[in-house]
Amino acid sequence: GGAEATASSLVAAALVLSLACAQAFLPKPIWADSVQESTRFLCCIGFAAVLAVAGGSYYLKERVDAIESDIAHKTAHFHDGIALIKTDLDRWIGLGPGQFPSAYFWNLPKAQYPGNITLRTEGDDPFLQIAGPRHVQGFGELFRITQRAPSSTNGPLKVTLTARANGPTGFNVELCRKWLIYEDGCTINSVKINGDGTWGVYEFIVPGKAMGSGRWYAPRLSTLSVVAIGKTLLDVRDISIVDLTAGELIQNGRFTEGADHWFFTSDRHHLPWHAKNMWVHLWVEHGILGLVAWGILIAASLGRVALQGPHRTSAGAMAVAGIAGFLVLGMFDSLLDIPRLTVMLLVLNYLALASREVTRPHAPADQAASLPSANAHSEPKVSNT
């Protein structure tokens, strides 16, 4: 939310912190394994979340205001994903893990073409061929090929590249403070590429800009992106981006190592790569059998911890909370197309299935006999041993 969200965020954080302190220091904890005693705690947490969203985060308020249109848009995309299932065999076993993007690519509406990169060779020289998207191209919809840059990089940058195109087009170089998408400060410059189909060498300067590198404990990550502006095929080789202090920033600029060190992104136009619903994505890639298998796994994990009642372990309870988070977010995101998240979900299911009930050890007979009686007026019983 930026600076305007500071006050509301601090209030929300203080509320959560006060609850944590009360839980730790009060004689009677406010969080216990009962519905009655935990209701007020959950209400306070919910209030803190609403306060943080409504108090200053423009982005979240904008997304909440657009819920109706977002649902309609995502529902249409769900139907497009389900339509990729063509045969009875696909319906039962799916198209295969990781096959959603290619299947969608060959069946998508023309206006949804997201852009494409292809590694080619000419003689002994490799080069990258970039095909821009065919939809309306705002800044967030551009198809970017990206590398990570040092957080301290501010420019100016000297860019040298060899490129060709079969029609007039442009080539951007962007240095932005961002993790992967959604920039928070950029410095950009571009060059026009001749459209005569011959290789040419182009040089230009990306101006310097003080964007801040963040604190040592929370650095603001940076990316270097190259972008083909337009819908004409653009061939690129020998990319060099030099910082005046840090030297060469680009790795594998000649593409001799294939696509190593490069990653493609689109800040806002990313529907062609996943289903935006975990269960639709599973159906397309794993079929009915995959849906049933995942359903059994998740139901068994949740059921095992739930049946343990008050004797459950904290690890099991936390695993269930994590799985619940996956299920809620999975309604509007595919999640499992990201390998790290898939592994995390499997680990959470393992923790839930492997959890055991906690049983309190019984006191030995001699210790039990030496404990004070529950009757305050009676003398403590002492064993004869």
Class from secondary-structure proportions: alpha+beta
Mean pLDDT: 82
The biggest beta sheet reads: 6 strands, antiparallel
Number of DSSP strand runs: 13
Number of discrete helical segments: 10
Range of helix content:
25-40%
Low-confidence parts? 373-382
Label the overall shape: globular
Q: Mind telling me the C-alpha Rg?
A: 29 Å
Series of secondary-structure elements, N-terminal to C-terminal: HHHHHHEEEEEEEEEEEEEHHHH
Strand portion: 15-25%
Distance N terminus to C terminus? 70 Å
Descriptive report:
With 385 residues, the protein is an alpha+beta fold. Helix content is 38%, strand content 21%. It contains 10 helices and 13 strands. The strands form 3 sheets. Strands 1, 2, 4, 7, 11 and 12 form a 6-stranded antiparallel β-sheet that branches. Strands 6-5-10-3-13 form a 5-stranded antiparallel β-sheet, with no helix packed on it. It has a two-stranded antiparallel sheet with strand order 8-9. Strand 1 and strand 2 (125-131) form a beta hairpin. The longest helix is centred in the last third of the chain and has 30 residues, at 278-307. The protein is globular and about 75 Å long. It starts with 5 loop residues before the first helix and ends in a 15-residue tail after the last helix. 22% of the residues are buried. Residues 373-382 have low confidence and may be disordered.
